[in-house]
Design brief:
23% helix, 193 residues, globular, disordered N terminus, alpha+beta, single chain, two-stranded antiparallel sheet, 43% strand
């Protein structure tokens, strides 16, 4: 569209790509530089979009991650993810790598739809205090109008800590090398495999 607006005609031949006039070439070069700058900053835009959406959906929680990037297969890779209540230093969830497989057709039309989420080596820390409150109790219910993605867990760890009460000492149990998937089976329902 930009080339058509300015009457740019590209000629592809043995010598490569060339424009039919110096003005057309300069306009094409300017457009290329603008697109190149946007491409270089794409990871910043992705980070901003994730942080903004998260803050809107879960304002009382803190999400941190080292980097988010689109790979060559149009999968969104988010690295070194932690999730914790804003008022706590203890994390509920640590994920070395999270991979979101996006719908390519919808992505081309600027719509964002996640088909599958893959968690690599996640660590979930569930803690019940001495009064009986769990650290995940403040997680909000997120209303969604789209179908849920498949969720796959590779080499996960679940750690459960029950704090000391009047009748029981502190108890800690864990389960390592957890593998599984949650496959959508209905509206916000999953089959656990």
């Amino acid at each position: 569209p930009l080339m058509q607006q300015h009457g740019v005609r590209l000629i592809i031949g043995k010598g490569g790509l060339r424009a039919d006039s110096l003005q057309s070439f300069q306009e094409l070069g300017g457009a290329y530089v603008a697109i190149d700058r946007l491409w270089e900053r794409r990871h910043e835009y992705i980070r901003d979009a994730i942080e903004t959406a998260f803050a809107e959906q879960m304002p009382d929680w803190r999400l941190e991650f080292r980097q988010a990037r689109l790979d060559d297969d149009r999968r969104l890779r988010i690295e070194e993810v932690t999730l914790a209540p804003k008022d706590s230093t203890q994390t509920l969830l640590d994920i070395p790598e999270m991979v979101l497989e996006l719908d390519e057709e919808l992505l081309e039309s600027r719509q964002f739809f996640v088909r599958r989420i893959q968690f690599e080596r996640p660590v979930v820390r569930l803690v019940r205090d001495g009064v009986g409150n769990w650290n995940l109790a403040p997680l909000p219910t997120i209303e969604s109008t789209v179908a849920s993605p498949e969720i796959v867990i590779h080499d996960g760890t679940v750690l459960v800590r029950l704090e000391e009460t009047y009748y029981t000492p502190t108890i800690e149990v864990g389960c390592r090398h957890v593998e599984g998937s949650l496959t959508p089976s209905g509206w916000q329902q999953f089959d656990l495999v």
